[in-house]
Request: fold
Amino acid sequence: MNLTPTYNLNQPIDRHNTDSSKWRRYGDDVLPLWVADMDFISPRPVVEALHRRVEHGVFGYGDTPAALRLLICERLERLYGWKVSPPELFFLPGLVSGLNLVCRAVGILGDGVLMQTPVYPPFLTAPINGGRTVITTLLQERNGRYEVDFDAFEQAITPNTSLFLLCNPHNPVGRVYERWELERMAEICLRHDVLICADEIHCDLIYNGHRHIPMASLSPEVAGRCITLMSPSKTFNLAGLGCAFAVAQNPEIMKRVQSAAAGIVPHVNVLGYVAALAAYREGQSWLDEVLAYLTANRDYLVDFIQEHLSAIATTKPEGTYLAWLDCRNAGIPGNPFRFFLDQAKVALDDGARFGPGGEGFVRLNFGCPRATLAQALARMREAVEHDR
Ligand SMILES: Cc1ncc(COP(=O)(O)O)c(C=O)c1O
Reply:
């Protein structure tokens, strides 16, 4: 690990006038700590590789670089002992496309799709878009962390349930599931003939003391019943470049996903490939620095809330740069998202959009310079104190 910082992550970067969704939606007087991208510059090798590609000046149709397929397979084996071969990868412009495709590729119209809430909102809409129904169970907060309610999980499965959408690390609650939890979820799914789609987009953003385990790496049996969705986009802050991939080791499932995509889902753009390749090849030292920075941001945030916003409850994220704040007992009038937007000029994500269990919560993105985070928290504190 590179111990001397080479990136100045403290330095705020002006993202106005860059077509940033995060920075455009709420006007110039609002600090945006919502949507999941970070306010950090990407790894230098990525920026340089993009420069070289742009200089070439010809941007015709692309094709997945064989080197990227190999690099990803090598990475999955190195990090997780998970053996994947290049044809078992299917490239997509984003994970949300992947979630929607998988909902259409698995089962039949009207089938149930199981998920645990609160959860990333497109989980709730993907089944509906594909003519399926949504089945939810609640994650349970116990002793400062969210846990799977295995009884409710199993009881929610009906003969028409064909798919379980797993989010690991779990957005928004920041859990990184342990092996035994994954094994138990997988065992239940396999016993009930439920396929698993594992959204593991946050898999590289894991804090000390925790370890990401891909669901499909548990065993060949699980791999044969699992589609994994991953991407360098959260890891290296490349969300706007649209390069993601699905891993399906069951050829029948791969065929179904590919035919659901045919003619509808566009190819990954050439710059997305260039960035992904450079990031996986040369981005690790940047990632080490960013993880150290995010760890300090996370701890700053949790301490600040305990000290100055103590009526708000939160858990310490094990992964992701997202914090899930329980404002239900904070005496905040109305919807807390609205309150912080109007009174503090801080844009968060409205917990109500994350399905059952989300009402009264907000999600805060701490992937930003410390000064931005500190300013947002100070504004939130002032708004809450002013309202007393
Ligand atoms: C769990 C999860 N899945 C998928 C996405 C979005 O993926 P993409 O931008 O590749 O569609 C996000 C972004 O926040 C996410 O948190």
